[in-house]
Specification:
Strand order of the largest sheet: 6-7-8-9-11-10
Distance between the termini: 40 Å
Number of strands: 11
Order of helices and strands: HEHEHEEEHHHHHEEHEEHEEH
CATH superfamily of the largest domain: inorganic pyrophosphatase (n-terminal core)
CATH architecture of the largest domain: Alpha-Beta Complex
Largest sheet: 6 strands, mixed
Strand content: 15-25%
Number of helices: 11
Shape: globular
Low-confidence stretches: none
Number of domains: 2
Radius of gyration: 19 Å
Structural class: alpha/beta
Mean pLDDT: 95
Helix content: 25-40%
Length: about 300
């Protein structure tokens, strides 16, 4: 459906529960919160599902919108969630509507607004809020600016295009709090995060003359650094800082011993194809999956796939 059709659909319903994805990022949290705000301005009862994985930077964005205990929704909206398996931990209902920008969306929702040409889901929600309300508030602009900047690495990632920059400029004109957003999400990190980054950089592995960079993050490293899930923002971007790298693998050991994998690549190689081999997916240049193996074994399995898709 288009934006007007989606706005019309939303206006026909009430008692909304908006759901983010597991291991949430700024795009899913900012987009979902802005949509919730807009629905409330339309006179609707709307809440966010209390995702237990919101980190300390994301919680202040979501807290004004979190659903009270016992709330029973009549209509559920998944925002920035590519597959049903990616819905927030503990959420057990289906989705009546999915708003997303992932080309690998599995079309699990009853209805959908998908624009896979968009760099961030925040760009989609920006247009939808305008269709719903006719305007965008300053607070909504800030929430959407978080969405836009985090999914583009503050306009550094290859998914950034002219439309992205145009949307960013529009949000700034609408009053988005750019200085504090940039400081909180991109410039300041905890001492534990700095210690963890030092360990990651000192133990990185390089293959094929540096074209493939691999970062392993073990539970031991997390314990020694004191890092918590609050410190995991954009760990996947660290390996990609290597000059000349084409494929960048970040493999983080989970509490159960499995490995959470983030793949970043240039246009030469599809990150999504690599992750699809393990049941994951995402974008051409940014994707993820989980491998039921410890990091060392996961790295071996990933390298086999990488060498197949990037001979």
């Amino acid at each position: 459906m288009n934006y007007r059709e989606c706005a019309k659909l939303l206006k026909q319903h009430d008692d909304f529960l908006i759901v983010t994805h597991n291991n949430p990022d700024g795009d899913t949290v900012g987009s979902a919160s802005a949509l919730c705000s807009a629905l409330r301005r339309c006179g609707k009862r709307a809440f966010l599902y209390p995702n237990p994985q919101f980190n300390r930077k994301q919680r202040p964005l979501a807290e004004p919108f979190l659903a009270p205990e016992g709330f029973v929704p009549a209509f559920t909206v998944a925002v920035d969630v590519a597959t049903e398996q990616m819905l927030a931990r503990g959420f057990s209902r289906g989705a009546d509507l999915c708003i997303d920008h992932h080309p690998t969306n599995s079309h699990y929702a009853k209805q959908e607004l998908i624009r896979d040409e968009k760099s961030a889901c925040g760009e989609i929600v920006l247009e939808l809020v305008k269709a719903l309300c006719g305007d965008v508030t300053r607070d909504e602009a800030s929430l959407l600016y978080v969405a836009l900047t985090t999914d583009t690495g503050c306009y550094q990632y290859d998914n950034t295009n002219a439309a992205t920059l145009s949307a960013g400029a529009e949000l700034l004109r609408l009053g988005a709090d750019s200085p504090n957003i940039i400081k909180d999400f991109f410039r300041k990190v905890s001492p534990a995060r700095l210690r963890l980054e030092g360990m990651i950089y000192s133990n990185m592995r390089f293959y094929r003359g540096g074209k493939i960079a691999v970062a392993l993050i073990t539970r031991e490293m997390l314990e020694k650094s004191g890092a918590t899930p609050d410190d995991f923002d954009d760990l996947a971007g660290l390996a990609g800082r290597t000059e000349g790298s084409v494929v960048n693998l970040t493999i983080r050991e989970l509490p159960n011993g499995d490995s959470k994998v983030s793949v970043r690549s240039t246009k030469e190689v599809s990150s999504s194809d690599i992750c699809a081999a393990f049941g994951g997916g995402g974008h051409d240049m940014a994707a993820g999956c989980t491998i039921a193996e410890p990091p060392e074994r996961a790295a071996e399995l990933l390298m086999e796939v990488v060498c197949a898709v990037y001979p």
